Amino acid sequence: MIHIVDYGVGNIQAFLNLFKRLGIEAKRAYTPDALAGSTRLVLPGVGHFDHAMQRLNDSGMRPCLEELVLGSQVPVLGICVGMQMLAQGSDEGVLSGLSWVPGRVRSFASHPKSADLPMPHMGWNELQPSAGAKLFARGFDDAPQFYFLHSYYFDAQDKGDVAATAHYGMDFDAVVARGHIHGVQCHPEKSHHWGEQLLKNFVEL
Amino acid sequence: MLRPRIIPCLLMHQGGLVKTQGFKDPKYVGDPINAVRIFNEKEADELMVLDIDATAKGVEPDFGLIAKLAAECRMPLCYGGGVTTAEQAARIVDMGVEKVAISAAAIANPSLLTEMAAAVGRQSVVAVLDVRKRSGLFAKGYEVCTHNAKIAHKLDSVTLIQQLQIAGAGEIVINAVDSDGLMQGYDLDLAEQVKRAVKVPVTFLGGAGSLEHIGDLISRLGVVGAAAGSLFVFKGKYRAVLINYPTPAQKIQLCRDALKN
């Protein structure tokens, strides 16, 4: 079963709507028990890093998620702040991240090449997938377009984990993949056929 | 590269969609859910839905209808109309709406933007300002109005916009009252003044009558949001109701050409 992790942050309904439309069964999970039998996990998130981390920590699901992802190697897809939570920490807050993908979340405002641009980085931007990136393995043309809405970005420590970059003042790590752990900064649930294809590819990994 | 956004703006009035001229004379143009479905198929960049009754009548947002719109909408959605508290904004975001727009309530009390930003994140907080040229013999500049342009405020528009940005708005939408529904092009001077004054993304609404007008806005201002009502719901000089939107290829070409100039 594909579970959308509902820890009180993020647009769960948008994912349920989209999976339904794709004819793929998916359920909302908001307790550790409900996570039993997961074959795929979607970890959404919006807003402040610390707020999202705190809510996840308080949800009681974190140990279970760690068991599923790190123990049973269940593929996971973090989205927006859900992706940023995969990192070790964020310049937006003080709490530790999940540390599933080595890296840190940094602010566009503190980078000289993006500091003068409108903030948040909001709108449609092109992704440059890395060679062999599994989330883009099928169904993508030259210039996939995705919807972004964020002021902080993932800076992967091991650039081998970068599955796609996007450009906002500079190239930043917009999609990461470390084995079965995936994260996308953009919003596939709001990115028309490109987003649908990315979610399909995640399910069919 | 980040691309300018081309955004249909739908007005809700008595449960249906309407289009106004100069904020008056609402003309029925169809059913909101049906319109969302059509814009899904056309892969619109984003959708803005404004309930023009809620604030004017002093009622809360129609949460039932918003939930239905959000469930149907497969592109980023911005809802505005009647939102007066951070709790309402959080409830709307929980339904799957990306952005919540406020206007009158934010102008009356900018700290509401701060509360909303704390509740849903600054990126989801949109301040909409209805702006028109000051009228009168010695009048200069623009004024901000609310309640469907029935109430005007004294503060200079640019000063007010900057205040709202500091208070917590993650995006500013400028709705040019004088240009509404005329389809004669955006007020580019107003747009330029605003763009220069703010650091958050900004979207302009009011006046677009053709894709060329959108191109004009982008060539002058670069990467901004270009929103339009009439352009995407009417076809031809007799204003026959027909929901339309450029194809993905047209849209990309339009932005590319405009940014070159």
Your description of this structure?
The complex is a heterodimer of chains A (205) and B (261). Chain A is α/β, with parallel strands linked by helices and 205 residues long. Chain A has one domain: Class I glutamine amidotransferase (GATase) domain (Rossmann fold, 3-Layer(aba) Sandwich). Helices cover 22% and strands 30% of the residues of chain A. In chain A, strand 12 and strand 13 form a beta hairpin. The longest helix of chain A has 12 residues. Chain A is globular. The two termini of chain A are 14 Å apart. The relative contact order of chain A is 0.17. By secondary structure, chain B is an alpha/beta fold. An 8-stranded parallel barrel of chain B has the order 1-4-5-6-7-10-11-12, surrounded by 6 helices. In chain B, strands 13-14 form a two-stranded antiparallel sheet. In chain B, helix 4 packs parallel to helix 6 and helix 8 runs parallel beside helix 9. Chain B has a single domain, classed as Alpha-Beta Barrel (TIM Barrel), CATH 3.20.20.70. Helices cover 37% and strands 28% of the residues of chain B. Chain B contains 11 helices and 14 strands. In chain B, strand 8 and strand 9 form a beta hairpin. The model of chain B has no long low-confidence stretch (mean pLDDT 93).
Please outline the helices and strands.
The complex is a heterodimer of chains A (205) and B (261).
Chain A: E1 2-5, H1 12-21, E2 26-29, E3 40-43, H2 49-58, H3 62-71, E4 76-79, H4 81-84, E5 89-90, E6 103-107, E7 121-126, E8 128-129, E9 145-150, E10 152-156, E11 162-168, E12 170-178, E13 181-184, H5 192-203
Parallel strand pairs in A: 1-2, 1-3, 3-4, 4-13, 5-6
Antiparallel strand pairs in A: 6-10, 7-9, 8-11, 11-12, 12-13
Chain B: E1 5-13, E2 16-21, E3 24-30, H1 32-41, E4 47-51, H2 54-57, H3 63-72, E5 77-80, H4 86-94, E6 99-102, H5 104-108, H6 111-120, E7 125-133, E8 142-146, E9 151-156, H7 157-167, E10 171-176, H8 188-197, E11 202-205, H9 211-221, E12 225-228, H10 230-233, E13 234-235, E14 240-241, H11 248-260
Parallel strand pairs in B: 1-4, 1-12, 4-5, 5-6, 6-7, 7-10, 10-11, 11-12
Antiparallel strand pairs in B: 1-2, 2-3, 7-8, 8-9, 13-14
Helix pairs in contact in B: 4-6, 8-9, 9-11
